[in-house]
Amino acid sequence: MMHIQFLGTGTSTGVPQIGCRCEVCTSRNEKDRRLRSSVLFTVGNKNILIDCGPDFRQQMLRSEVERIDAILLTHAHYDHTGGIDDLRPYTARSPLPIYLEPDVARDIRLRLPYCFWEKRYPGIPNLTLTEIGESPFTAAGISVIPIRAMHFELPVLGFRIGQAAYITDMLTLPESEYEKLNDLDVLVINALRQTPHISHQTLESALRVIDRTAPRRAYLTHISHQMGLHDAVSAQLPDGVSLAYDGLVLDV
Question: Can you tell me the distance from the alpha carbon of 48 to that of 67, in angstroms, rounded to the nearest whole number?
Fold first, then answer.
């Protein structure tokens, strides 16, 4: 049995967006309140975090996650990596491995150089960066299949763990990657809004990918306030497709 916990399902500004008074940002429905996107896969007794954004501390206090065994990073953008310094409590006893592409590793070392000094100040995050490519690898003893996607012109990674796959910040998926999405119980995929965006899928384009890959269940994430109210949009979705929301937990 695997559990998937949505820690955040919002886009880079979060929802509500600062200064916005639209019907979504002023909604009292908790499902319309979205922290920056991140998800926790629990496989057996191992917790694998995908992305560690600037809301990480708040997400951990809310979800009461006591241990993280490995982290997978999709790409280097701040809304997916801005919480790395807050990993300190999870690295007190042993280094925490982060799996990431070489260009992402370079960016993390530049942003957080004190984490990688030979003589490190006590209490800073104790991290090990393991560079990956497009070949399958093992994190905390769990097999992971990377999925190449394009965030406009920026290559990013999604990940398949068992019968579930998680892809965020995707605009397009190379033809070669579709076979990695065969026979899924759960596909989590980004859908920013209903109108076109230069680097993110719309609701319509996400539904096309879901229709082609035919997972048993699909959940949309990385959602902006421009998508519309959670309940209104949910009522229009096809069977088997749902808007994810913060705090949602799936059993796979």
Answer: 9
Give tens-digit pLDDT for 1-42.
Answer: 899 999 999 999 999 999 999 999 999 999 999 999 999 999
What span, in angstroms and rounded, lies between the C-alpha atoms of 32 and 171?
23
- How far, in Å, are 18, 53, 89, 90 from residue 36 at the CA level? 13, 6, 20, 20
Give the closest residue to 59 by CA, choosing from 13, 128, 24, 8.
Answer: 8
Q: Could you write out the DSSP letters of every residue in 131-190?
A: E--SS-EEETTEEEEEEEEEETTEEEEEEEETTEEEE-S-SB--GGGGGGGTT-SEEEEE
Q: How far is CA 78 from CA 99, 150, 173, in A?
A: 16, 17, 22
- In the predicted model, what is the mean pLDDT of the chain? 97
Distance separating alpha carbons of residues 140 and 96, to the nearest angstrom: 10
Residue partners of 191: CB distance under 8 A and separation at least 6: 201, 202, 203, 205, 206, 207, 220, 221, 222, 223, 227
Q: Which residue has the tokens 């949009």?
A: 233
- Give the number of C-alpha atoms closer than 13 A to the C-alpha of residue 201, restricted to the C-beta side: 25
CA angle 78, 82, 87 (to 5 degrees): 155
Query: Taking a C-beta distance cutoff of 8 angstroms, is the pair 105, 136 a contact?
Result: no
**8-state DSSP, 91:** G
Q: List the structure tokens of 89.
A: 């409590």
Render pLDDT for 226-248 as a digit per residue (tens, 0 to 9): 999 999 999 999 999 999 999 99
Q: Residue type at 133?
A: G
Whole-Å CA distances, 104 to 12, 129, 181, 182, 192: 18, 10, 24, 28, 23
